[in-house]
Amino acid sequence: MVAGSFLADRKAARARAGSSRWPWLVPLIPAVVALLVTGWRLSEPTFWRDETATISVARRSPSEILELLGNIDAVHGLYYLLMHPVVRLFGSDEIAMRAPSVLAAAVAAAVTAMIGARLADRRVGLVAGLLVAVAPAISRYAQEARQYTLATAVAVVATYLLVRAAERGDRRWFAAYAGSVALLGWLQIFYVLIIPAHAVLVATTHERTLRTFRRWLIAVVLAVLAIVPLLPKALSQRKLQVGWIAKPDGGTLRFTLEMMAGGGWLIVPVVALVVLALLRPVPRTGPVDPRWTAAAWVLLPPAILLASSLIVPNYVFRYVLFCVPAVALMAALALRRLPVWVAVLVVLGLTLGTVPEHLKIREPDSRADDIRALSAVLGEHRRPGDAIVFTDQRSRRLMTGYPDSFRGLNDIALAKTSAASASIDGTEVSPAELATRLSTVRRVWFVRRSFVSDIPVDKAKFTLISRDVRHWRNVARYRYKGGTVTLYERR
Q: CA-CA distance, 397 to 381, in Å (whole number)?
């Protein structure tokens, strides 16, 4: 009887730790797969305007970056500071700028596997990690020079630290957890919506629940206090940052489900797996309940952000990207209830089902605007002395993606550079001054985005160039995804 009890305890301990003869394989395999998948064709998609903002800011000195954050993009400030040494050391091509996001995706896959192994067993962990590694949503943002996969990795790490803290009740784990949540808020303020999901994790934890909850609450308070200095700037800059976001509708929900599942036709099977995980839970191997931990992580952050966005629109999918690992955990928990051969077939089916999405996001023009195509036109057809005007001054950042194609063009609307004005796009001269400058040039390239700016200065450019048929004639027009570029010559 004693021997049987000892063997049972030993088996449970091994399952709880996710151990095997080679325990390091559980996180390592998903990490390697994530590196291979997210790094595949990394340089093929063109830079787009958000990435060019990263390049523009990261090239500046730390003091210039801090000065900028007082005016705009405070919520991205930590990421810009982290990318500054990357640009200094490795340059600003697609691979260098996107490599940190790829590495973050590998961390997210590995730590998701560690969570699954601790909450259930190594099979759950391995499957969950692999599903994160092949998720198209993770690849989409891993192949972008923005902070979303980095913040997702931190959210996953924070969850792992909380699992360990709930298991052990050790203050050191709670302290590490508090630090990770604070870091998460500074990387992406909306990602702190993982805190309500963590509340469910703690509330459903067996053993030492009251002490665990008290220590978790203290950790959250400390983390929030560390984020508080960011909030005034974030709120004051809200209109500049997210003023363009519309209220969510049925299309928003559909797109969210597609991104979470990995494709439109995968919505039904993935939702079925989530329901199966809820109805037929895997026995827990520790005090933390894997089912409710993952379910709260999947459901609460998107629900809260969607509901609040009906009042103040803030919802876009990338703000809930950190929930994709939870979908993987739910699917892995459901698959654990199936025979191994069935589970393997389902995983293969899900993986193959994501292939069309992976191919789509790696197309050269898969981003919102094809800056590479714009740069190719200017690189081929520009002449010495040509001027360039952007109908929307925010489009000036497009020049930082592929600067060689813009070199030598006279940006005649520019008053102060972005660095000198502590902005991303610089400041522009008045319409009167622009008219004076235009009178001195023979040819001007007019770059127009696919939408019309409502800024008075931007509207005046149409009158001065495209509508001034007495002085300018349209000699060539080129379309690119996201806008057009038109060459005007003086009559």
A: 20
Round to whole Å and give the CA distance between 257 and 323. Answer: 11
Quick one: which H or E segment has residue 110?
helix 94-119
**Closest to 443 in 3D by CA, of 392, 393, 385:** 385
Name the pLDDT band for 7 (thresholds 50, 70, 90): very low
Of the candidates 14, 67, 50, 293, the one whose C-alpha atom is nearest the C-alpha of residue 148 is 50
CB–CB of 395/380 below 8 Å?
Answer: no
Two tokens at 263? 């494709």
Sign of torsion over alpha carbons 200, 203, 206, 212 = positive
pLDDT digits (tens, 9 = 90+) for 128-142: 999 999 999 999 999
Other beta carbons within 10 angstroms of residue 441's beta carbon come to: 17
d(CA 315, CA 312): 9
Length of the chain equals 491
Query: What sections of 397-481 are H helices per DSSP?
Result: 431-438, 456-461
Give the pairing type, strands 483-490 and 472-480. Answer: antiparallel
Average pLDDT score over residue span 334-353: 94
d(CA 131, CA 122): 14
Can you tell me the mean pLDDT for 294-310? Answer: 97
Contact (Cβ atoms closer than 8 angstroms) between residue 396 and residue 418: yes
Domain locations along the chain: 2-361, 371-490
Task: Please say if the pLDDT value at position 41 is more than 50.
Answer: yes
Is residue 4 pLDDT above 50, yes or no? no
Residue-level pLDDT at 187 = 98
The C-alpha atoms of residue 25 and residue 19 are separated, in whole angstroms, by: 9
| CA gap 380, 371 in Å, rounded | 14
Cα separations (Å) of 188 from 34, 78, 219, 230, 322?
22, 9, 19, 11, 10
In this prediction the pTM is 0.94
Q: What is the pLDDT of residues 411-437, one digit of tens each?
A: 999 999 999 999 999 999 999 999 999
Measured at the alpha carbon of residue 317, what is the angle toward residues 96 and 45, in degrees to the nearest 5? 35
Nearest residue to 188 (alpha-carbon basis) of 322, 281, 285: 322
Where residue 23 falls among pLDDT bands split at 50, 70, 90?
A: confident
Buried b / exposed e over 402-432, threshold 16 CB at 10 Å, is beebbeebbebbbeeebbebbbbbbbbbebe
